[in-house]
Amino acid sequence: MSAARSVRALSALLRVGALEALAYRGQMLVWVLASTMPLIMLALFGAVAHEGPVGRYGEPQLVAYFLVTFIVRQLTSSWVSWQINMEVRDGTLSTRLVRPVHPLLAYAAEGAAAAPLRAVISLPVAIVLLVAVGWRELSSDGAIWLLFVASLVGAWLLSFFVSASIGALAFFMESSVKVTDVWLAVFFVFSGYLIPVALFPARIQAVLDYLPFRYQVGLPVELATGVHGRAEALALVGRQWIFVLAAGLGMRALWQRGFARFSAYGG
Asked: What's the rounded mean pLDDT across residues 132-140?
């Protein structure tokens, strides 16, 4: 397939993904509402911080942290594992195989196309609150914000690659939804989504530096809230992209083996 045709196909997939997101905006709203745990945690931690700082976080820092967490989660989440599970089980994945674009690229395009709608639905309230009470706690370094953008892209890719890998396990088992549930349970605790990574004991923090969870949410939030200097931020973003590369290669290998099995059984 030529590069020009690939670009046209990708553009069409993005338009289709955006239209599907609009068509199922009620379902999209449910997903957004299901991702409001950072706001609940803000209320809980805020009540404690009212009496005194929680670790290094006072009330303003907690407001900034959890509202940025809410924003980052909306922009970087991927639920493609459920879609792959469904399409493998009911055989509709076969219809993707006759299209001129690889199914994984199609899934990625559809997921990326839905992000603007999630932003339209969820971000205005968070941004208004953030500007009103937490803007002083954001980084003022332009270089850090450039690294934040890189980390945001990396977080989305890492989330997609992991979710697609778990979805591809459906080639080998009846359903990998339970694997998704286990992954999310661990992710919620150790990614910085519910609890800032800085509040964990030092030994646990040291372990989390070498696990992928923090790099899906915690790192972009830490950069936006000015936790790291330039050198440390650059090193962390570099480590994040190593995880991105490893997850992408793992997804590709798992998909190839699973797809061969799918084809062999007449999928």
From this structure: 79
Q: Scanning the structure block, which residue is given the tokens 């992000």?
A: 115
* Tally of structural domains, the chain: 1
| Three-state SS letters, the chain | CCHHHHHHHHHHHHHHHHHHHHHCHHHHHHHHHCCCHHHHHHHHHHHHHCCCCECCECHHHHHHHHHHHHHHHHHHCCCHHHHHHHHHHHCCHHHHHCCCCCHHHHHHHHHHHHHHHHHHHHHHHHHHHHHHHHHHHCCCCHHHHHHHHHHHHHHHHHHHHHHHHHHHHHHCCCCCHHHHHHHHHHHHHHCCCCCCHHHCCHHHHHHHCCCCHHHHCHHHHHHHCCCCCHHHHHHHHHHHHHHHHHHHHHHHHHHHHHHHHHHHCCC
Name the band, by pLDDT with cuts 50, 70 and 90, for residue 3: very low
Helix axes of 177-190 and 80-90: crossing angle, nearest 10 degrees: 170
Domain around 87: 3-264
pLDDT tens string 80-99: 888 888 888 887 787 777 77
Amino acid at 121: I
Are 148 and 209 in contact, with CB atoms under 8 Å apart? Answer: no
Report the pLDDT averaged over residues 28-34. Answer: 52
Q: How far apart are the first and last CA of the chain?
A: 23
